[in-house]
Write a structure and sequence with these properties.
Strand content: over 45%
Helix content: under 10%
Largest sheet: 7 strands, mixed
Number of helices: 3
Structural class: mainly beta
Distance between the termini: 58 Å
Radius of gyration: 26 Å
Number of strands: 47
């Protein structure tokens, strides 16, 4: 390269970025209703030859794409279209939560029933179990199982339908049920320089829509297939949005363009869109939308992006985020809990790239790309409110042999540009849970104690800390009881004899945030000994709070110490194992009051106690009846008397729980 060429390239990219900003401003200020063509900021790939050539030319070239001139160019990807000018806030209130659905006395149905615990109002999340106030629908082991569960005394399975693939999750929408599953399909492709096509077995993500007006005989209506694996999904009204992911690697000779097929016939052949900046590796994501009642309303868009790890969906936008690690950084570092400027390089190229896609019925459009330092914990690390995306991240880095970390909160505008930031929270700790509620964020970080932060987001340009509380243990999940009280579910911790910290049992805590500057823990309960666990710690859909009766249900695998009788040695004990659910009354005045426990199993004989076949994964209610669900059974009891079992339904395949070792299923 001739001398000065690099500088000219950088200058050209800066100018290009400035031109893009001017274009965005012009459209925004003039109110032009015409959309900016996507090809202005994305590459459009229209054929398999183009796709294979692009992948071969760009593989592994984007490893350090966020530094120098390339970083400037990538920022230029953030753009707005005319359809985004109508972007509206989607968060509803500071503590509104989904409430039980009322059937107003429908014949044979419960008057009210619980729904899946979701993050955003009006955005349903798929799960392996759903109910409609009379029937419980479960997908397990490749089958759809329907149980007539209400009234509980006569609960029984009324139908079992083989799906023909690896079943994942379901939605119910009136008399329609959607089942997502993965399967394999043989297709013919013509590799480069090949004289003839060859058969290739590809993974396929599918959604089959059933008519369940007769639950004893569900009828498949149509099946929608997309290449790749089922990743996640949401349902807004009658529209389902599901995301499939198809990792691309190898020589790329057999890579195919995406498609959407309905009942075996290809109905959509979407082009592939890709940011012009090379990525380190590529995954093809296809966002497919369809109306559960209308065959003619199906849409799809495909994108080549990095490996995503987080999905957040509002009523108008889909956000796909993935972590990108690269490079070294020279700048401020934490030394003895203080920020100091040091002439020291340390590894902190950790960034999260976030792509926003607007959704409107079956239409899916790329909208903007942004980037923030650090990594996300889960979907609760993101939230959309009043035209802004709020994000909480943890930054991990290394100084010599020591790993260090700190935490940040960012506010991004609709063009995915950072407009506000609060950085360097809780040095040497990591985010364990986050809950955005209106213009507040409740944040838990942890290393040795549990700092419970209250973050002020009322000024999106300048977030601030309102208060914090430090107590032993940590919370993996936060859930509002009401506007002034937050429930935390996590683990208790204790200082051990070696000066470190050991985990105890499952901890539930109730925080009073009436005084935002001085949050307090007004009650806490520890369940079980070290090794005890709850599905809620990894999956928010396992959480059940009945606000009608102020009842909290906690699925638990409880580990206890049982004294050894007849031993001549002091404090000899064995481990006891109990699977079921703890049921608490909860109120700000009295805290947690144990109502009772529903049992699925106890004293496992296998010794393999972590998430066995009897591990309770979900709970739900219909009127005053509590149903707890494990892989082996459904147990019905009363919410106000959970100790007394009304009925049990054994689920098909109730057998020794499979476990994995070295990639082999035992």
């Amino acid at each position: 390269m001739k001398e000065g060429t690099g500088y000219r390239i950088i200058i050209a990219l800066i100018i290009a970025g400035a031109v893009a900003v001017c274009i965005m401003a012009a459209y925004t200020l003039t109110g032009d209703s015409q959309e900016i063509p996507p090809e202005d900021y994305l590459l459009q790939i229209t054929s398999e030859d183009e796709l294979r050539q692009f992948l071969k030319e760009n593989q592994n070239t984007g490893q350090y794409a966020d530094y120098g001139s390339v970083f400037i160019a990538e920022r230029g990807l953030s753009t707005a279209t005319a359809e985004d000018s109508a972007f509206q806030p989607t968060s509803k209130g500071s503590y509104d939560m989904p409430v039980p659905t009322s059937l107003q006395g429908s014949d044979g149905y419960a008057d009210s029933y619980s729904t899946t615990n979701i993050q955003v109002i009006d955005v349903d999340e798929a799960d392996f179990v759903k109910n409609d106030g009379k029937y419980i629908y479960i997908v397990s082991g490749g089958s759809l199982i329907i149980t007539e569960a209400y009234p509980p005394e006569d609960a029984a399975i009324i139908s079992e339908t083989k799906i023909g693939g690896d079943t994942k999750e379901i939605f119910i929408n009136g008399d329609k049920l959607v089942v997502f599953y993965n399967s394999q399909k043989e297709v013919w492709v013509k590799p480069e320089n090949s004289a003839a096509p060859i058969p290739v077995t590809n993974e396929v993500a599918a959604a089959v829509i059933y008519d369940i007006s007769d639950p004893e005989n569900p009828q498949p209506e149509r099946t929608i297939e997309v290449p790749g694996y089922y990743q996640n999904s949401r349902m807004i009204g009658d529209y389902v949005y599901f995301i499939s992911r198809n990792p691309l690697y190898g020589t790329y000779d057999d890579v195919m363009m995406p498609y959407v097929a309905e009942d075996g016939t290809e109905i959509i052949s979407p082009d592939v869109w890709c940011p012009k900046i090379p990525q380190g590796s590529y995954v093809m994501y296809t966002i497919t939308s369809f109306n559960v009642d209308d065959r003619g309303k199906t849409g799809s868009e495909s994108f080549l992006l990095g490996y995503d790890n987080t999905l957040f969906v509002s009523t108008e936008n889909v956000y796909l985020a993935y972590q990108k690690d690269s490079g070294y950084y020279r700048g401020p570092v934490f030394i003895d809990d203080a920020m100091e400027e040091r002439d020291l390089s340390y590894q902190t190229g950790q960034k999260t790239v976030i792509h926003r896609f607007s959704i409107d019925d079956e239409k899916v459009r790329y909208a903007a790309t942004g980037e923030v330092p650090g990594r996300l914990l889960n979907q609760y690390s993101m939230d959309e409110y009043e035209e802004n995306l709020r994000v909480a991240t943890t930054v991990d880095f290394w100084m010599s042999a020591d790993g260090r970390s700190y935490n940040n909160v960012y506010v991004l505008d609709r063009d995915m540009n950072i407009r506000g930031e609060l950085e360097n929270l809780a040095p040497d700790e990591s985010i364990y849970s986050a809950r955005f509620m209106g213009d507040l964020l409740y944040l838990v970080t942890y290393k040795r104690v549990d700092p419970f932060f209250v973050i002020d987001l009322s000024n999106p340009d300048q977030p601030g800390i309102l208060g914090k509380l430090k107590i032993p243990g940590y919370s993996d999940y936060l859930h509002p009881l009401d506007e002034k009280h937050i429930i935390g579910i996590g683990k208790a911790t204790y200082e051990n004899e070696w000066g470190g910290v050991s985990e105890g049992g499952v901890k539930i805590a109730l925080f009073d945030v009436t005084d935002l500057n001085d949050p307090v823990c007004i009650d806490k309960v520890e369940i079980g000994d070290s090794g005890s666990d709850s599905e809620i710690l990894d999956d928010h859909r396992a959480f059940l709070l009945d606000k009608r009766t102020n009842t909290l249900v906690i699925p638990i695998t409880e580990i206890t110490k049982n004294p050894v009788e007849g031993s001549r040695y002091e404090d000899s004990y064995s481990r006891g194992v109990w699977n079921g659910a703890y049921v608490y009354g909860i109120s700000p005045e009295s805290g947690f009051t144990l109502k009772g426990k529903t049992v699925h199993s106890k004293d496992s004989e296998t010794g393999y106690y972590y998430r066995t076949y009897d591990h309770v994964k979900r709970s739900l209610f219909m009127d005053d009846i509590l149903y707890t669900i494990s892989d082996s059974k459904i147990v019905a009891a009363r919410l106000n008397n959970p100790d007394e079992t009304i009925s049990e339904v054994e689920l098909p395949g109730s057998q020794e729980y499979p476990y994995y070792y070295g990639g082999v299923v035992y």
